[in-house]
Write a structure and sequence with these properties.
The protein is mainly alpha-helical and 179 residues long. It has seven helices and no strands. The longest helix has 29 residues.
Length: 179
């Protein structure tokens, strides 16, 4: 709404009417924006007086312990599936590009020449390693800093998933290795 008002005030101002609106918007299409200096904004908190200190609003709530039941961890909205798939996609994308650089084989040739078994072994290792903290009730953001945070891992995993699919489609269309 603020950008709408700002845009209207720029378009309807007398200075912009000569430069901007004369070429883009003829003056018959621009409505004048009348301003009133008497406008005041008042707000009132609902629920009466508040006894809380201002610092209580700034402190984050204590992090809740996640459920360690496998059906909760691996549910559709649980913390496991996207993180595990993202980790596997990151490993798969980096290894596919590295093998392609060093051997010149495309992704499908890598899979046909024994890459499938490497993928299965790595997947089992990473799934077990990812489920161990969840089984102990430790959430994804338990020990994170400002740079290495859980959101960065999720977004990097999503980018790796898209990159791996894009690599496979590009190599299929091209008919050979990308590099």
């Amino acid at each position: 709404m603020a950008t709408s008002v700002l845009g209207q005030s720029v378009i309807a101002s007398p200075l912009s009417r000569t430069r901007f609106t004369s070429s883009v918007f003829p003056s018959k299409y621009v409505l004048p924006l009348h301003r009133s200096n008497k406008m005041q904004v008042k707000c009132k908190a609902e629920g009466g007086d508040r006894d809380e200190s201002p610092l209580s609003e700034l402190t984050p709530p204590p992090s809740k312990k996640i459920s360690s039941r496998p059906e909760d961890v691996l549910s559709f909205t649980g913390p496991g599936p996207e993180r595990i798939n993202g980790r596997l996609a990151m490993i798969g994308f980096v290894s596919a590009i590295a093998v392609e650089i060093f051997t010149g084989q495309d992704l499908f040739t890598q899979i046909a020449n024994g890459g499938y078994m490497w993928f299965v072994r790595t997947s089992i290792l990473f799934v077990v390693a990812s489920l161990i903290p969840f089984s102990q009730g430790v959430g994804p953001g338990a020990k994170s800093s400002s740079f290495w945070n859980p959101d960065a891992e999720v977004w990097n995993g999503r980018a790796a998933m898209v990159g791996l699919v894009a690599l496979a489609i590009t190599e299929f269309i091209k008919g050979g290795a990308l590099l």
